[in-house]
Write a structure and sequence with these properties.
The complex is a heterodimer of chains A (623) and B (365). By secondary structure, chain A is of the alpha+beta class. Chain A folds into 2 domains: 172 residues, Alpha-Beta Complex (Penicillin-binding protein 2a (Domain 2)), CATH 3.90.1310.10; 348 residues, DD-peptidase/beta-lactamase superfamily (Beta-lactamase, 3-Layer(aba) Sandwich), CATH 3.40.710.10. In chain A, 38% of the residues lie in helices and 21% in strands. With 365 residues, chain B is mainly alpha-helical. Chain B has one domain. Helices cover 68% and strands 4% of the residues of chain B. Chain B contains 14 helices and 3 strands. In chain B, 50% of the residues are buried. The chains are: A alpha+beta (623), B mainly alpha (365).
């Protein structure tokens, strides 16, 4: 046995070398690959291991507040509990989706849809599932947190508008930044899901309102649960913006509108500061800050009265009889008429093959300029228009700011249209017919103005021709109350119109509110003298047999727009107001009482009982 | 009883290498588990206890003259196989597999001791000199039977890793004792033709692991996750490592099975290339030294016995490290002396005891 055993040991010795070689090769492979992983790929893989464990949690900065001129809060931030999921963490624990969905009352599909989210999301960036959850849900989520890897709940500031839809068009709203905005701004400041001003002051003053977001680096375990904080950068809140509006006046104006649609702007005459800016219908800006559903959005867009439009600067309407101010100025300045030029109104004015009608069927009889403005006689201004021609009218319209933007610092202001012969040639390639001048002379035809333009026009008349830049923001302060920027009154021009002409017009405007047979009497106040001009803008051309009472039987969308532009006090002008009631009918009947409410509030007067529409009709004063 | 010459020839080099690796293992284990919630005895203390028991067993195994094991081989083998059957009947289920039996306060894995006893019976079988040109296939039927019986039982647990080790150790011994070239080729062809069948027998999770190995990016958060995280851990260690107790991958739970099969990833993360080279180098020294012992043995039984142990150590260490580096599919094969696990440490040290035994007696006969 022993013999046998020792006999064939050489075989093994002979194999020894090969075995060592084999083992050597095997271990060499390990050495080489270790070298490859740890030396050549070492830095990359270290980066990956850091990415694994280090996550960034944003700390969203508080957005600056919006306040009224007296420092009353219009927009601020309140804490909201927002639920986030990290898709990478959830993918390996799909049951988390069901659990979270159960607590938040979201279906599996809804959560799945949200989690898919934007395509260009960086790895491990949390996706918001729901904002503003209540305490009960918060408690449920927090107590189950350990079993829900990939979930985290964060307190983030949410925009709160305490007065709901009040001044919503001026204040605007914020929403999640979209792809276009991200591309435009670069993603240094904004990231997917950041909130950004989209409309109104929130949009225009975005740069000062936005704070600087901070962030926390935290270490997480393999399930994405926070282990410990590593570093953090504090967020820095944005600046507070003080608007020029007065909350009380704004409220009074909004209330005066009741359920009517249109626009009201009140402005400080000597500074151009906007005191109130109403556009109806309005919207609640807070719905955009949260999760606006596509149905809500569609309802806004498709609403027949365009709630998202700030009618004061976006809406363009024929100015109607308000424009007679311009026609009168053009007549006086060019010398085509004198203050005592008298014209007889028979209720109809035949010109060419057409008959132009005055709003008063029986006619006004013989009038001078003052009376023609007070009673808003159409026939008088047809003839003034014919005397001065469209180009002179266009010139003085331009002098008083029509046909161009006022320059208000709100997005997408419209410029309106002031027609002239050359304008028509450019626009349509045809020459001007003098018949068209008649329409322009009474504020119809191609004429289009925004309510703000008419307000600036009226203010200039009251102000000796000075045109002010309408401003909505008075100053910007940082969180410590230090003034960062102040917006001082800015004169944008001075109309080249003689003071005597302007005085005549002012007297007539005063008469148009306060004299017998005045069209704007519904805005007259005992204590303060109001001066103003009514207007009725036709939406469709009336049939020749149209009767006044027929207006109430017309479909709403074909009814006339009612205008009223006024200022007070006559002796010492402080405030100008323009009122437009869309499809409201006659300016004197509908728009003037709304302006009256604003004057009452502004001058701290007793509010008068609301004027009954029937009472106005009974007086048969319309324009 | 103990020959003085035995002490003179006591293989300090072998024991030195083993103790060095084992110490690194304890240190590494201490770091790896120090993050977890401590409930009961910390794992590294348990491992130290097992190491002490193992070293005792190693010495006992070393000083009993190894030729007695030849007589004892079949008894050991039969006992191990019976224990395997017992495991299937009464074993403890953990994570979907039935591998452990309880023996007093200890639980242990009989499959570990099957490896040693299989080496012993194969050494006994092959100690007789083969005919010219090596063993023929027909003469290999008994060894194949000896392999398949425990292998099937272990696959049923299921424990693919240990079964693979058994197969590899068996094939290594076949090569070592020299089988005919024709037989080798026949075996190869048979093996390859059996592969589809083996594939069908694999559990889903095992199939997934193999598919993932070939394409780990396919499912970075599912089955490929472990592989990717393991590579990240090792690679992020760089040349000098992140430092003792500072491995983030491992501390934050990104590594799977970090104290058993993936212990090497933790080592690589904290000790870097230097630590890895040291440990892999030590394994290589252990293998080379073991092979020397095998070829210097005075008889075939001792040579085959020690070679079997070397083959076991080699395949365990090579496959495990290759696996955590992503060079091989993930199979549950632990790393000798580094991975946590009492039975495995014990069987490894018993194997080392056999090596010592043969080494000490190389001049005796």
């Amino acid at each position: 046995m022993m013999e046998l055993n020792t006999q064939r040991m050489e075989d093994f010795k002979e194999r020894y070398r090969y075995l060592i070689l084999f083992a050597g090769m095997a271990f060499l492979l390990l050495f080489v690959y270790l070298w490859y992983l740890q030396v050549i790929k070492g830095n990359d893989l270290r980066q990956l291991s850091e990415n694994n464990r280090i996550r960034i949690r944003e700390m969203v900065a508080d957005r600056g507040m919006l306040l009224d001129r007296k420092g009353r809060i219009l927009a601020h931030n309140r804490p909201s509990f927002e639920v986030f999921l990290i898709p990478e963490d959830v993918r390996s624990n799909p049951e988390v989706l069901d659990k979270v969905g159960e607590i938040l009352h979201l279906s599996h599909e809804e959560i799945g849809e949200k989690i898919k989210g934007p395509k260009r999301r960086p790895a491990f960036r949390p996706v918001k599932i729901k904002s503003d959850i209540d305490w009960q849900k918060l408690a449920l989520l927090e107590s189950n947190k350990v079993h829900l890897p990939g979930l985290f709940v964060d307190v983030r500031p949410t925009r709160a508008y305490d007065h709901g839809p009040l001044a919503s068009h001026l204040i605007g709203y914020i929403g999640e930044v979209d792809e276009n905005e991200l591309k435009k701004m670069g993603d240094r400041v904004y990231r997917m899901g950041s909130l950004i001003g989209k409309y109104g002051v929130e949009y225009q003053w975005e740069a000062v309102l936005r704070g600087v977001d901070g962030g926390r680096q935290i270490e997480v375990d393999a399930l994405g649960r926070e282990i410990k904080p590593l570093r953090s950068v504090e967020s820095y809140p944005g600046n507070n913006v003080f608007l020029t509006i007065d909350l009380d006046l704004q409220k009074a104006a909004e209330e005066a509108y009741r359920d009517k649609n249109g626009s009201l702007i009140a402005m400080e005459l000597q500074t151009g500061r906007i005191l109130a800016m109403v556009s109806k219908p309005s919207f609640d800006p807070s719905i955009f800050a949260g999760n606006v559903t596509s149905e809500e959005w569609r309802a806004m867009i498709e609403h027949p009265f365009h709630p998202l439009q700030n009618k004061g600067i976006h809406g363009q309407y024929p100015p109607g009889s308000v424009f007679k101010i311009i026609t009168a100025i053009a007549g006086l300045e060019t010398g085509a008429i004198a203050p005592d030029t008298r014209i007889n109104c028979t209720g109809a004015f035949p010109y060419g093959n057409r008959t132009f009608r005055c709003w008063k069927e029986g006619g006004h009889g013989t009038l001078n300029l003052h009376q023609a403005i007070v009673e808003s006689c159409d026939t008088y201004f047809y003839q003034v228009g014919l005397k001065v021609g469209v180009d002179a009218i266009a010139h003085y319209a331009g002098e008083l700011g029509l046909g161009r933007k006022t320059g208000i610092a709100l997005p997408h202001e419209k410029a309106g249209t002031v027609p002239s012969a050359s304008w028509k040639k450019r626009r349509f390639g045809t020459s001007w017919y003098s018949g068209e001048t008649l329409s322009v002379a009474v504020g119809q035809g191609y004429l289009n103005t925004t309510p703000l333009q008419l307000l600036v026009l009226l203010s200039a008349v009251a102000n000796g021709g000075r045109l002010f830049l309408p401003q909505v923001v008075e100053r910007v302060e940082d969180i410590y109350g230090e003034k960062i920027k102040e917006y001082l009154p800015e004169e944008t021009g001075r109309a080249n119109i003689s003071e005597s002409t302007l005085r005549l017009i002012r007297e007539a405007l005063m008469g148009a509110v306060n004299e017998p047979r005045a069209t704007g009497w519904a805005s007259a106040l005992k204590q303060v003298k109001v001066a103003g001009k009514t207007g009725t803008a036709q939406v469709v051309r009336m049939a020749s047999n149209f009767k006044k009472g027929d207006m109430n039987r017309m479909p709403v969308k074909f009814r006339d727009h009612a205008w009223f532009a006024a200022y007070a006090a006559y002796e010492a002008p402080e405030i100008a107001v323009v009122v437009l009631v869309e499809h409201g009918g006659y300016g004197g009947a509908v728009a003037a009482p709304i302006a009256k409410k604003v004057f009452e509030k502004y001058f701290n007067l007793e509010t008068s009982p609301p004027v009954k529409a029937e009472a106005v009709l009974a007086d048969s004063v319309y324009d | 009883m103990i020959d003085r010459r035995l002490l003179i020839h006591f293989d300090w080099t072998l024991v030195g290498i083993v103790l060095l690796i084992a110490s690194i293992g304890i240190l590494n284990l201490y770091s790896v588990i120090s993050n977890g919630e401590v409930t009961g005895t910390p794992l590294y203390l348990k491992q130290i206890l097992w190491l002490a028991i193992g070293l005792g067993a190693m010495l006992v195994v070393a000083f009993v003259e190894y030729r007695h094991y030849s007589d004892f081989a079949y008894i050991a083998y039969t006992t191990a196989v019976v224990l395997l059957i017992l495991v299937l009947g009464y074993g403890i289920m953990t994570s979907g597999a039935q591998r452990w039996v309880k023996l007093g306060p200890f639980t242990f894995q009989p499959s570990e001791f099957v490896k040693i006893s299989l080496i012993m019976v194969l050494a006994k079988f092959f100690q007789r000199v083969p005919g010219r040109g090596g063993y023929s296939l027909r003469r290999l039927s008994i060894p194949f039977l000896l392999l398949f019986l425990p292998m099937v039982l272990i696959l049923k647990q299921p424990d693919l890793g240990t079964a693979i080790i058994l197969l590899l150790v068996f094939l290594s011994i076949l090569i070592f004792v020299k089988i005919r070239w024709s037989s080798l080729i026949t075996l190869g062809v048979m093996g390859i033709s059996l592969l589809p069948l083996v594939w069908r027998l694999l559990k889903d999770y095992q199939k997934r692991r193999i598919i993932t190995f070939f394409n780990p990016e396919m499912d970075p958060l599912g089955a490929g996750y472990h592989l990717i995280q393991s590579k990240i851990a090792i690679g992020s260690g760089g040349i000098t490592g992140k430092g003792f107790m500072k491995g983030t991958q491992c501390k934050l739970g990104f590594l799977p099975e970090q104290h058993t099969d993936f212990i090497f990833s933790a080592l690589g993360e904290e000790w870097g290339l230097l630590g890895c080279f040291l440990v892999v180098g030590l394994y290589f020294m252990l293998i080379v030294w073991g092979l020397r012992i095998a070829v210097q043995s005075k008889d075939r039984f001792g040579a085959i016995l020690s070679f079997g142990v070397v083959a076991m150590l080699f395949w365990h260490s090579f496959i495990n490290i290759a696996m955590v580096l992503g060079l091989m599919p993930v199979v549950g094969i632990p790393l000798p002396l580094l991975s946590y696990g009492g039975s495995f440490l014990l069987s490894t040290l018993i194997g080392v005891g056999l090596l010592l035994n043969v080494s000490m007696r190389r001049y005796l006969f």
